[in-house]
Design brief:
Blueprint (H helix, E strand, L loop, with lengths): L2 E6 H7 L2 E6 L4 H10 L4 E4 L3 H10 L4 E6 L2 E2 L14 H4 L3 E5 L3 H7 L3 E7 L4 H11 L3 E6 L9 H15 L6 H7 L19 H7 L7 E8 L2 E8 L5
Parallel strand pairs: 1-8, 2-7, 2-8, 3-6, 4-6
Antiparallel strand pairs: 4-5, 7-9, 9-10
Helix pairs in contact: 1-5, 6-7
């Protein structure tokens, strides 16, 4: 079994070594799974807003999805919201995606030998992929809020993936999820913040093990890309 470390925030991404999972449950990497499920042709995580705008302009017909502080970036096509994006919006599209936490983790994980993204919606697939690859060292990075404050849902996802990889028991996942609305995810239930953090986003991001694929991070001349990889060894 591999040595598994749970790290947190942007500093944790910088410390990551070996096979690395960058985790952002609410909402970046849950959203990317939904984008692929809705037929997006390619999702490219991007660190800066300026780069994302430039890439969208360079490739007519592509889309930019982005947020800072949770709020949609002015000029972006969509915010970082799975409940606000329809199949007809993204099917067949290349998407440049920039966020405050998740995509920053990818950019900062310089010491990783391989990177995949992680969220509750594909956690079991991520664990199966780790077991298939059988690395000696695994870093699970819980990116938190804006990469600087702990987010319990990201830590929960890391603990869940670790338990699945090691075959160890874990406290009831559903029970932990149902505590989040009052223990870290209150902003998704506040009537005053529904324009930025709609409640349906929370529930979509909590649909554990919905997708049987992982998103591997590769790099080419344009930067990073998330590559959908189906997993057939889920159990």
């Amino acid at each position: 079994m591999p040595e598994i470390r749970i790290l947190e925030l942007i500093e944790g991404a910088r410390e990551a070594r070996g096979f690395t999972v960058i985790i952002d449950v609410l909402r970046a990497f849950s959203l990317e799974c939904y984008l692929y499920a809705k037929g997006a042709s390619l999702v490219r995580p991007v660190g800066s807003m300026e780069e994302a705008f430039a890439l969208r302009d360079r490739f007519p017909g592509s889309l930019m999805i982005g947020e800072r502080g949770g709020r949609k970036i002015d000029g972006a096509d969509f915010g970082n919201t799975p409940s606000g994006i329809r199949l007809e919006d993204v099917a067949g599209k290349t998407i440049f995606h920039t966020t405050s936490a998740g995509t920053q983790g990818i950019v900062n994980a310089q010491g990783a030998t391989e990177i995949v993204t992680g969220s509750l919606v594909n956690a079991r697939a991520v664990a199966a992929y780790i077991r298939e690859k059988a690395p000696e060292q695994v870093s699970l990075v819980a990116m938190g809020n804006n990469g600087i404050r702990r987010a319990p849902e990201d830590v929960l996802c890391a603990e869940y993936i670790r338990s699945l990889v090691l075959g160890e028991p874990m406290v009831d996942l559903r029970e932990r999820i149902l505590r989040l609305p009052t223990e870290g995810a209150e902003h998704f239930f506040n009537p005053a913040t529904q324009d930025v953090f709609p409640e349906p986003d929370f529930w979509l991001c909590m649909e554990a093990d919905r997708f049987p694929f992982v998103l591997r991070i590769e790099k080419d001349e344009l930067g990073f890309k998330s590559v959908r990889t189906e997993i057939h060894t889920l159990s």
